[in-house]
Amino acid sequence: MKKAARKFGIFLFVIISWVSVPQFIYAEIDLTLIKQTNLDVQPLDIAASADGKLIFVLARGEIIVYSFAEDKVANRISIDKAFDRVTYAGKNNVLILTSSSSKTLKIIQVDFIYNIALDGLPFKGPADAAVTIAVFDDYQWPYCARLEPLFQQVLDKYPDNVKLVVKHFPLANHKYAHKSATAALAANVQGKFWEFHSQLFKDYKFINDAKIQDIAKELGLDMEKFAKDMQSPAIKSIIERDVRNGRQIGVRGTPTIFINGKSLKNRSLPGIYQVIEAELKKTS
């Protein structure tokens, strides 16, 4: 009797457990072919970038970089033929290659080079400089203001090799950021962009309509022309282009710095020097 009761208890436990566990219902799967590309090599392994825009196809002796957005092979990187596995670490933007035959591991830094529109923007340094620093700025943000002395040190160190360009990226929560960018570009029409730019950062805590007018007067600008240029559709278009360009390449805040199209991660002076030196080595 006890044995029968024990068996019934176990049976009842199994029934209750089965009922209490969520029963998963599997939906049907619809598969749609998006793209198909024929490769001229035999693929050994694949990996994808964190945003899914690039696919790295490992073949014997090379990595084929396929652009998903453009539907084409964007680059081919020669490597040792011994490597037979590839992984992409998105957090650090590195490719990790391993070889089962030679028991080797190799880590390759992946730098994405973005197309940054610079036409019509004022700059410091030689027009044909080997290295271009493009910084997305907001005139009401203290972190942007703090970088100004650092950029001047960079220009002083590389007077013949580095060009600095400001891209305007006024943040929506800063009331006078857009108007400040407009004013700086209006001052540029009269050849006073960098003076206006510097003064805006010096006074970033106090920027308002009156302060913008005061800066223009202190710099000796033609105030009637300045007021007219503040309404210029061309200047408005430049700022809109900068914001659109920034969003396209992943800019979410300021300051965001690119050196020859590559996003700068280490914004310290040694970090900037390191990237510049690497770029100069390529040109030499």
Question: Which blocks of ≥5 consecutive residues have pLDDT under 50?
Answer: none
The counted number of beta strands is 12
Structural class determined from secondary elements: alpha+beta
Percent of residues in helices: 25-40%
Oligomer: single chain
Strand order of the largest sheet: 8-10-9-11-12
Biggest sheet statistics: 5 strands, mixed
Plain-language structure description:
It is a single chain. This protein has a five-stranded mixed β-sheet with strand order 8-10-9-11-12, with helices on both faces. A four-stranded antiparallel β-sheet has the order 1-2-3-4, with no helix packed on it. By secondary structure, the chain is an alpha+beta fold. 37% of the residues lie in helices and 23% in strands. It has eight helices and twelve strands. A hairpin with a 2-residue loop joins β11 and β12.
What layout of secondary structure does this protein have?
Layout: H1 2-20, E1 43-48, E2 54-59, E3 62-67, E4 72-78, E5 85-89, E6 94-99, E7 104-109, E8 123-124, E9 131-137, H2 142-157, E10 162-168, H3 177-189, H4 193-202, H5 209-218, H6 223-229, H7 233-248, E11 256-259, E12 262-263, H8 269-283
Question: How would you concisely characterize the structure shown here?
Answer:
By secondary structure, the chain is of the alpha+beta class. It has helices at 2-20, 142-157, 177-189, 193-202, 209-218, 223-229, 233-248, 269-283; strands at 43-48, 54-59, 62-67, 72-78, 85-89, 94-99, 104-109, 123-124, 131-137, 162-168, 256-259, 262-263. It has a five-stranded mixed beta sheet with strand order 8-10-9-11-12, with helices on both faces.
